[in-house]
Design brief:
With 106 residues, the protein is an alpha+beta fold. The protein has four helices and three strands.
């Protein structure tokens, strides 16, 4: 029996497609379930899904939407919080903090 690779016939698994395109496997599985890309289940039970490499390359990821159907906009980066003197001292490593004088010592 001749041995061949799936890539030789233009097929790939969900994991291979995601590794190549930088997507999360669950994301691609969701797109398959929504019908955005065709897949073929192979094997019994859980099996695995095969995709055509050309279909994966042609897929344009959908625009993410918020709960109201509007496109999501990227969040603005937050400004770093400025610490007051007491907070800054509390965030220092223990070795860098000045030690408190104990009772009875000088």
């Amino acid at each position: 029996m001749a041995e061949f690779f799936l890539s030789d016939v233009g097929l790939e698994t969900v994991g291979e497609a995601c590794a190549r395109r930088g997507w999360a496997p669950k994301t691609l599985q969701n797109w398959i379930a929504r019908g955005l890309i065709a897949a073929c289940k192979v094997g019994s039970g859980r099996g695995f899904l095969l995709l055509r490499t050309a279909d994966v390359d042609a897929l344009v990821p959908p625009v993410r939407e918020d709960g109201r159907g509007r496109p999501m906009t990227p969040r603005k980066p937050r400004k770093p919080k400025t610490l007051h003197a007491k907070e800054a001292a509390a965030n220092q490593p223990a070795a860098a903090r000045p030690r408190k004088a104990r009772r009875g010592q000088g």
